[in-house]
Amino acid sequence: MKKIGIYVHIPFCKKKCKYCDFTSFENKLNKSEDYINSLLNEIENCDKTGFTVNTIYFGGGTPSVISENLIVKVLEKIKSKFKVEENSEITIEVNPGTVSKEKLETYKISGFNRISMGLQSSDPNILKYIGRIHTYEEFCDCYKKAREVGFKNINVDLMIGLPNQNLDNVIDSVNKVIFLQPEHISVYSLILEENTMLEREIKNGLYDIPTDEEERKMYDTTKKILEKNDYIQYEISNFSKKGFESRHNLNCWNQEEYLGFGLASHSYFNNIRFSNTDILEKYIENQKDNVKIEEIQTEEIRKKEYMMLGLRKLEGVSISSFERKFEINPLFYFRFEISKLVDEELIEVDLDNIRLTRKGLDLANLVFEEFV
Ligand SMILES: C[S@@+](CC[C@H](N)C(=O)[O-])C[C@H]1O[C@@H](n2cnc3c(N)ncnc32)[C@H](O)[C@@H]1O
Ligand code: SF4
């Protein structure tokens, strides 16, 4: 029986960070109970069958901003509706400004075994510029409590390319996080999203952001420090201790199937990509007309997407896995694209893998364009 992942979206935050354009609201917490009722209905009415579940991921938004009892209800509903494998990875994203020890304990008891915490930077000024609700010290306190209640798998999110951030700030943040020894660290380059407060403020000259060259230096330095400290880079933005790669993420990059529940969530099932409405009121009122088919994948699209997703991983695309899945050798099927990218030194090929080179890691978008 096939194995799939489940994603649950919680679209509430205490306060919107200035850079963020995820589907999340800062002033609609009073709708959280109605929202969860709709979410429970959506899960209950799901008609997809023929699989077991091996990863569950509660993301947002900030799942930890709503009552822990509501979160537990959703996890229990998933467990009663689907066959969830015993050793599944079950993650919840938390924002340090929104959790107590009791909350973390409830998550742990109800079955969550992985916590993902947003820190972004340890610098107090940068945290203020980007609109975070917590200090570095509050983050440490949250981290300590997560360990105390027994979490043995913790991820910390950092960002580079932030307003007024320099290389020293980045090195300091990375070292401070390494000192805590989380099992997993994600390092995201700031994407300056349209219509965010940060985009407007930068346009108005309120802050400087690092140049591309400075940001590349931040990325390279971060990589070096993490690798020296036994964090293995397994994807462009993701590092982990051996054996602690995020199974939820790997499923996506390996083009495995998943079902998304909740506002604006995406699903990939039976070669169809579909998504839920991103209008909160509509989601709460009625779910019948809320699903939009995004793409019915042909074999060609699946092959291209498999390359694009797989090349995000440092190990790249396994030639034998591609052959097993599509019954053709990718070196033959994509011979023109691969030969061009090898000539440009953006990818390399060895016995069983096609992967990004050092240069390709910096210019990954150019590589992905070949498979669109
Ligand atoms: C849903 S949030 C994590 C949980 C929680 N909401 C928080 O912020 O602490 C997911 C992560 O995406 C990253 N992120 C969000 N917007 C981004 C952007 N515009 N550019 C780069 N990374 C971004 C941040 O590192 C953030 O921690
Ligand atoms: S980064 Fe996290 S806390 Fe900040 S607005 Fe986005 S989802 Fe909410």
Shape: globular
* CATH top level assignment of the largest domain: Alpha Beta
Q: Structural class from helices and strands?
A: alpha/beta
Stretches where pLDDT falls below 50 for ≥5 residues? none
Percent helix: 40-55%
Largest sheet: number of strands, sense, barrel closure: 9 strands, mixed
The unique ligands bound to this protein are:
S-adenosylmethionine, iron/sulfur cluster
Q: How many domains comprise the coordinates?
A: 2
Which strand order do you get reading across the main beta sheet? 7-8-6-5-4-3-2-1-9
Measured by DSSP, the beta-strand proportion falls in: 15-25%
**What's the oligomerization state?**
single chain
Average pLDDT, rounded to a whole number, is: 96
Distance, first to last CA: 31 Å
| CA-atom Rg in angstroms | 21 Å
- Give the second-level CATH assignment, the architecture of the largest domain: Alpha-Beta Barrel
Report the total helices. Answer: 16
Question: Total number of β-strand segments?
Answer: 15
Instruction: Say what the CATH topology of the largest domain is.
Output: TIM Barrel
CATH superfamily grouping of the largest domain: Aldolase class I
Overview of this structure, please?
The chain is of the alpha/beta class and 372 residues long. The protein has two domains: 2-252, TIM Barrel (Alpha-Beta Barrel); 298-372, Arc Repressor Mutant, subunit A (Orthogonal Bundle). The protein has 16 helices and 15 strands. The protein has helices spanning 32-44, 68-81, 101-110, 124-129, 136-148, 167-180, 197-203, 212-228, 247-253, 280-285, 299-310, 319-326, 330-333, 335-343, 358-362, 364-369; strands at residues 2-10, 51-60, 84-94, 114-120, 154-160, 184-189, 232-235, 238-240, 258-261, 266-269, 272-276, 291-296, 317-318, 347-349, 353-356. The strands form three sheets. The chain has a nine-stranded mixed sheet with strand order 7-8-6-5-4-3-2-1-9, sandwiched between helices. A three-stranded antiparallel sheet has the order 10-11-12, with no helix packed on it. A three-stranded antiparallel sheet has the order 13-15-14. Strand 2 (51-60), helix 2 and strand 3 form a beta-alpha-beta unit. Helix 1 packs parallel to helix 2 and helix 6 (167-180) runs parallel beside helix 8. The protein is globular and about 55 Å long. The mean pLDDT is 96. Bound molecules: S-adenosylmethionine (SAM) and iron/sulfur cluster. Iron/sulfur cluster (SF4) binds at residues 13, 16-17, 20, 22, 24, 60-62, 95, 118.
